[in-house]
């Protein structure tokens, strides 16, 4: 059996904040975060959170799309083709056809089939045939670490101010760093059984035209999915439908690199701005109680119109078969702690998928690992003086706070996480 110190590199470090549920992640493996995402969690910077759809005025649901089954709509294909024509220019196709003619079979295939990965790369400089001809513009896409640069901040400032119409005094470098550059995910490389490699961690997918950064896709690359965090672009390319292009490119990345799934973030049915997410198919929605995936078809979508909160598993059992508020899609990490209701106790709440007090009292948390400022070594929960004297039913006690976090994450993940009570920088 490994000691806590020997296993340190694989722990995911979490600091409990409270209900609805929020926590601060100081360090987290991509594998662990994948499990959280599949349990209704998301992150904003280092803040990880699991909303309570029963109590929310706008319930949030987790979606995912199977990239291997994705077939772009006519509108989505047109967006890709329109962008490629802009980059390549009016005369490029004609000159390329003369200098590098396609075979008859290849021309027929291209006419009858929209190859997603092929079309996505069609205008990228590194995929063009040796010149001539020369494209009208040079287009490059790079996957870069999610670090802060003035170049990225310039696009962010323009996007928030022009596209989102956010007042300038609400836009800052600090906010950009906290929201889109500070990630707890550990960057590493996953090597598959066939020897193929997949990047894990948080990245910025940077789009440049003629050397100028025009768009950034903020992505979490997890073992089995590309999770979209945010997409921002310069208003000068607004006419090219960059949001649609970015989504299709992320789906292509999931397919091409072997991640398979694309997670577009939470879906809020009564929020018109989020309706675009369900235009990409086929998608599945996560049941907040059973944590099973349900196909998002017309019948499933109709349930959102009929009920404020939808439990798909309960609805299936019944059948015997198969007002806008503040969105939590990207909550402010600094405001999350201030928003907590100190009287709320997660284990007695109505939050879906959360064990009860009685159920948590049966969970063995004695081997749970903690970190504090008192020692530079790990502490096992059972070694705490209060461990045998406190009860998890005592709301507000240290043991109850630990039990809340374990309940929200899942008792089966106890061996993979470390409760991090160390003082955080800036707190």
From TrEMBL:
Keyword Transcription: no
Pfam families per UniProt: ATE_C, ATE_N
Keyword Acyltransferase: yes
Gene Ontology terms, MF aspect: arginyl-tRNA--protein transferase activity
Domain N-end rule aminoacyl transferase C-terminal: 151-287
Residue intervals of the N-end aminoacyl transferase N-terminal domain: 23-78
Alphabetic keyword roster: Acyltransferase, Transferase
Region (Disordered): 315-340
Family classification: Belongs to the R-transferase family.
The protein, known as: arginyltransferase
């Amino acid at each position: 059996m490994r000691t806590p110190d020997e296993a340190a590199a694989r722990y995911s470090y979490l600091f409990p904040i409270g209900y609805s549920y929020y926590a601060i992640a100081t360090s987290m493996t991509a594998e662990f975060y994948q499990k959280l995402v599949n349990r209704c969690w998301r992150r904003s910077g280092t803040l990880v959170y699991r909303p309570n759809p029963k109590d929310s005025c706008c319930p949030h649901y987790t979606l995912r799309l199977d990239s291997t089954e994705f077939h772009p709509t006519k509108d989505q294909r047109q967006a890709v083709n329109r962008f490629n024509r802009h980059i390549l220019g009016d005369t490029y196709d004609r000159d390329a056809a003369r200098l590098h003619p396609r075979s008859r079979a290849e021309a027929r295939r291209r006419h009858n089939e929209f190859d997603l990965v092929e079309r996505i790369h069609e205008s990228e400089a590194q995929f063009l045939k040796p010149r001539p001809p020369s494209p009208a513009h040079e287009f490059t896409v790079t996957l870069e670490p999610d670090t802060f640069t003035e170049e990225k901040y310039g696009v962010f400032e323009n996007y928030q101010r022009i596209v989102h119409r956010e007042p300038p005094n609400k836009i800052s470098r600090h906010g950009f760093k906290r929201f889109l550059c500070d990630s707890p995910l550990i960057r590493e490389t996953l090597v598959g059984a066939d020897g193929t490699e997949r990047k894990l961690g948080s990245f910025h997918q940077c789009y440049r035209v003629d050397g100028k950064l025009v768009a950034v896709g903020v992505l979490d690359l997890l073992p089995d999915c590309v999770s979209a965090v945010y997409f921002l672009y310069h208003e000068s390319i607004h006419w090219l439908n960059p949001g649609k292009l970015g989504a299709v490119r992320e789906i292509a990345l999931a397919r091409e690199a072997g991640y398979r799934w694309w997670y577009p973030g939470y879906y809020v049915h009564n929020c018109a701005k989020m309706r675009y997410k369900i235009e990409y198919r086929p998608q599945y929605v996560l049941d907040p109680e059973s944590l099973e995936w349900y196909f998002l078809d017309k019948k499933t979508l109709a349930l959102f119109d009929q009920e404020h909160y939808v439990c798909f598993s309960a609805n299936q059992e019944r059948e015997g078969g198969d007002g806008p508020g503040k969105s939590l899609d990207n909550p402010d990490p600094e405001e999350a702690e201030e928003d907590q209701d100190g009287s709320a106790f997660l284990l007695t709440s109505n939050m879906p998928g959360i064990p009860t007090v009685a159920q948590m009292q049966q969970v063995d948390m004695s081997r749970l690992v903690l970190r504090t400022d008192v020692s530079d070594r790990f502490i096992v929960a059972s070694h705490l003086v209060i461990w045998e004297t406190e009860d998890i039913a005592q709301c507000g006690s240290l043991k109850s706070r630990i039990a809340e976090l374990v309940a929200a994450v899942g008792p089966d993940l106890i061996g993979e996480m470390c409760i991090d009570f160390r003082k955080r920088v800036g707190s």
